[in-house]
Amino acid sequence: MNLKNKVAVVTGASNGIGREIARTLAKEGAAVVINYRSSKEKAEALKEELLSLGLQAETFQADVSSFSEAQSLIDFAVERFGALDILVNNAGITADNLILRMGEDDFDRVVNVNLKGAWNCSKHAAKHMAKQRSGKIINISSVVGLVGNPGQSNYAAAKAGIIGMTKALAKELAKRNITVNAVAPGFIKTEMTEKLNPEWISEIEKNIPLGRLGETTDAAKVVAFLCRDEADYITGQVINVDGGLVM
User: Fold this and answer.
1) Domain residue spans in the chain?
2) What whole-number distance in Å separates Cα of residue 199 and Cα of residue 203?
3) Under 8 Å CB-to-CB from 232, ≥6 apart: which residues?
4) Which of 130, 144, 162, 241 places its Cα 20 to 30 Å from the Cα of 213?
5) This prediction's pTM
6) Closest among 238, 246, 192 to 216, alpha carbons compared
7) CB atoms < 10 A from the CB of 33, how many?
8) What are the strands, taking DSSP E only, across the chain?
């Protein structure tokens, strides 16, 4: 119970990596607010799973790309549990296409959710964390934000922006004892990758030094570490969880 008596908000926590992050933080003792935008059934199922284990969890619907909805999410966590110690900005979408085919709306939607959404939540969370003079913000970026990827100019831009924002906020908030770090996953097994062509997956694995796709638990464990007291002297960092794909 490394995170006992801590309160955490995880955005985009009904699916994939976010779901496993919420589960892991709850199992380490944190009271977790499971944010979702549209997957209510999955979010409620996760909440019931955690409650059945005697853990603390709530769900909250909010589109984090909305400044006001992001504020409502953060305020709910503080009102429900009395504090906010951890914010994990995980919510993200994709709308892949080559730039010659990508619509302006596809670019705007991805940047608004993946980058502005993280900024919205961080701004509102920072107010509460600054008052208590402590807090942990972990932003989920991607190795695509480091090296780019064809057909993902919108996603790569947003995830690269997450890295720049992480470093800027780490410098801004350090005086309030708030650490800000980023985790950059590579290819992780999720519902999305299960739909991909097995031959294509095999080709990807050939380029990963550890020879396999990552599990959602691989990313969640790193996030959990950054939330613990053991990581109090780590801020402004980007940790790749990619099996050595990007070095």
Assistant:
1) 7-239
2) 6
3) 179
4) 162
5) 0.97
6) 192
7) 29
8) 7-10, 31-36, 57-61, 86-89, 135-140, 178-185, 238-241
CATH code for residues 7-239? 3.40.50.720
Distance CA(26)–CA(24), nearest Å, equals 5
* C-alpha pair distances (Å), 218 with each of 7, 170, 197, 241: 22, 24, 23, 7
Q: Contact 209/10 with Cβ under 8 angstroms?
A: no
Task: Give the span between the Cα atoms of 25 and 114, in whole angstroms.
Answer: 22
C-alpha 166/C-alpha 168 separation (Å) is 6
Q: At what angle do helices 153-173 and 104-111 cross, to 10 degrees?
A: 30
Sheet holding 178-185, edge to edge: 57-61, 31-36, 7-10, 86-89, 135-140, 178-185, 238-241
Which of 71, 201, 191, 91 minimizes the C-alpha distance to 141?
91
Active site residues: 155
